[in-house]
Amino acid sequence: MEIEKRRLARRKRIYTKMVEQKEGYRVHWKRFWIAYIIEAGIIGSTAYAGWHFANRYAGDEATAGATQVAAIGSWILPSVHHSDAWIMAIVATLAISIAELARMPLVQGFRTQRSKVMRGFLLLGVLMMCVVTTKSMSQVMEQMFHPRLRYVQAASANLRVEQSNLAKLEAQKGSAEAHSKPMTESVERLDAQLLELNKSLQGLGPRPKPIAIPPKPWTDKRGKRHKGVTTYTNPPWSGDALIKQIEELNAKRQAAAEQQTSAGMTVVNFDEQIADQRNIVTAKENAHREAVTNSQLHSFTAMVFGKDPVEVADGEVHWFLRFFVLIPALMIALASSLLMMAAYERVPSRRPEKFNLDINADGTLAHFVKSTASQVMKGQ
User: Fold this and answer.
1) Which DSSP string do the residues of 162-216 spell out, in sequence order?
2) Is pTM beyond 0.85 here?
3) Where is average pLDDT lowest: 77-86, 150-159, 190-199, 315-324?
4) Is residue 132 included in any domain, yes or no?
5) Would residue 22 count as lying in a domain?
């Protein structure tokens, strides 16, 4: 039994060698299957990423819905209606995934085809399919970085909103201060005027004493005589005008002081709001820094440009994203194609060896005839 197995294995090896000699190449099966495993991974990841892409960019929740069309026990079979954009995105994904199946056979044809013209066309097809694979894998890798990038973008947007609110409050505070400044200047000006008037009033000296007017006797209706009452009158004094001006300025100052106090309270309220808003901005900055720290893309971009990850601009991130996505995607497409090319090895054809043998046919034949005749004569 063991001998029979060995014979079968030997016959199989001999047959394989004969086929390889006939076809002119042999297959390195390990490289062959690794290339196809990579191709299967590319097709699967492309289809899954395309489905996520359709849900993210072409999903229409307003038109999408599910209706029950059948039930098997406790299982409900829904019929989901999607938008036309979602359906076309899925169709495009399936088309690219199916087209991806052509790359490995094109590589195989390029390695096994003997016609140079066909090899040129097949190589062109391989290069075109590598472009398709690059596009598919770049979509896959972009979605690998998208979640963290989306968190950073959301944190950055929230930070910009809060910074804008802070700038708005500071502008409103500046406007309130500008509105309060003339009122403060008006109160100060009125205080200065009152001070000058008070100094002028003090320079006039004390008010003159009232002048007593002697009483005038008078008789009532009954004929009774009365002495009258002594009256007093203030003599003319230039300080009366100053006192009137001081009273008017005090009224104006009181009104200006009330307006100044109201404007000052507004500024104080803005100070409190600005302090609270700065706390909010600080919290958003911490959230943004944490999101950037968890973003591998920002860390790599910062290393390339020599910056702090928080200081990396969106344009720099997208530039590095193109580099970090397209180059690996192209390498994946080329690596699997080159691996399939390396799976086919040329087998040199074996030519019959030439031997320079100098055979004396006549001498050999004569010796054979002589020996035969001698044996016949002896009766053998």
Assistant:
1) HHHHHHHHHHHHHHHHHHHHHHHHHHHHHHHHHHHHHHHHHHT-SPPPPEEE---
2) no
3) 77-86
4) yes
5) yes
